[in-house]
Amino acid sequence: MSDEEESCIVSQFRQFLELDPGEIELLYQLEKDPRSYSPDELIAASGQSSDHLFTVLSGWACAERILPDGRRQVLDLFTPGHIIGLREIISHHYTSDFRALTDVVACPFPLADLHEVFEQAPRLGDLFFLVLAREQAILVERIINIGRRTAAERLAHLLVEIRVRTQTTSNRIEFPLTQTMIGDALSLSSVHISRTYQRLCDRGLIKKRDGVVEILDLEELIDYSGFERSYLEINSNWAHTTRPATA
Amino acid sequence: MSDEEESCIVSQFRQFLELDPGEIELLYQLEKDPRSYSPDELIAASGQSSDHLFTVLSGWACAERILPDGRRQVLDLFTPGHIIGLREIISHHYTSDFRALTDVVACPFPLADLHEVFEQAPRLGDLFFLVLAREQAILVERIINIGRRTAAERLAHLLVEIRVRTQTTSNRIEFPLTQTMIGDALSLSSVHISRTYQRLCDRGLIKKRDGVVEILDLEELIDYSGFERSYLEINSNWAHTTRPATA
DNA sequence: CGTGGGGTTGATTCTTATCAATTCGGGTGG
DNA sequence: CCACCCGAATTGATAAGAATCAACCCCACG
What we know:
homodimer; alpha+beta; four-stranded antiparallel β-sheet; 10 helices; globular; DNA-binding
């Protein structure tokens, strides 16, 4: 495991709060069992017991739900540092499929370990609470995106979201999803994604080649997509009125 | 405050776990400052400081987001026992409006009180975690509903969701939303809601009069809407591997 | 060389939005 | 008690956006 890989969750969590060594050690425990997945491989399937969660170390994965008649909705995209399955703790079984989109390294860990963490480091419990709240904020933006924006706005919004979430400073983003996948994430057909890409290119907002999208004017793209700047910023009343570090 | 009102959050939480008297007392603290709101009144506005949360004691409220050009998306519906604003703890400010739809009684309480609760009763912290995860599950179903279902399926699904969430045994549900509101919740136009209602009536799935919808055949409506039966059931690996009650 | 998956393009259809007119029903004031 | 008003619901006509279907291209891979 490379240094970069090892620090995935920790670096996510540090967005919220500085961690002490004991806390960092606990988080490392969740990443001690790396497994590799090939593109398209199921990491966990709908209906399986949800007694394990996963941390993503590298690659892209998604959560998806397939309706009985074959319609599909991509619910979430996961990149390194994300935890897969947090919301599934309310039920005994996963309610969606989790699928690797590229080569993925992820670490399964038992749900019970999370309990362990909560007890040994209450502050980390608070942080997981924040993580869950942040995921909700992302889902809410997704609802608005799918519900009330045009195809071009949706795609633009997704690109901005990816750009912000992956925290690169570069405007050239590696975006390895097929257009079918993008369509299922934005509730559009793959054909329409193709046309919509072209419209964004024609407007001079982006440039596209192979799996790389270049954002030509981030500010304009943000305005065009209706992206809410404050969202994804972590700037909380919660993390700062905080408890002392681990006893 | 009536008995029924007083027990709102507590009865929500008991779905997950039996509570001890100390825990119940702590939860009551969150409901000690009831306020009344008229239909259409803002309970909290987008942009305001999110240092307070609200518990709903009676009535219907919603979370909504209005885009700069006037398009609106209803994000959530709140009924008694729900906590408003939990996901907003990641930012300093509310990112959506919270609006009373009927006459509403709700109790604002400071975010700091929640911290208090977490420290004094770690088990309640776990439960709030579950509540947040459950809200996520609801949002996910909403995404699927809006993203991949037809108008009729969406409306049917919403009716089933209301039926399940309000936990009545009756199939006659009080449903005081205007069709414009329903449209903004399902990402459809109010005109189309009207037509879609008729189609559901014509198919013999429901009957409608004033603000009351009668579900004629719940099983059929569930099948028709694609409602996922397991969702909203609380049946967790999490709550049951649980810590001892409050020290 | 084939083969197959992903992407592009064009033609057509379907669903839903939009616009406009009308009705219904509940509340208000004379 | 009635006339009026207003917001919500309904109905009809039309338009827009996206889906679907089908053909074709491109290219990586065996």
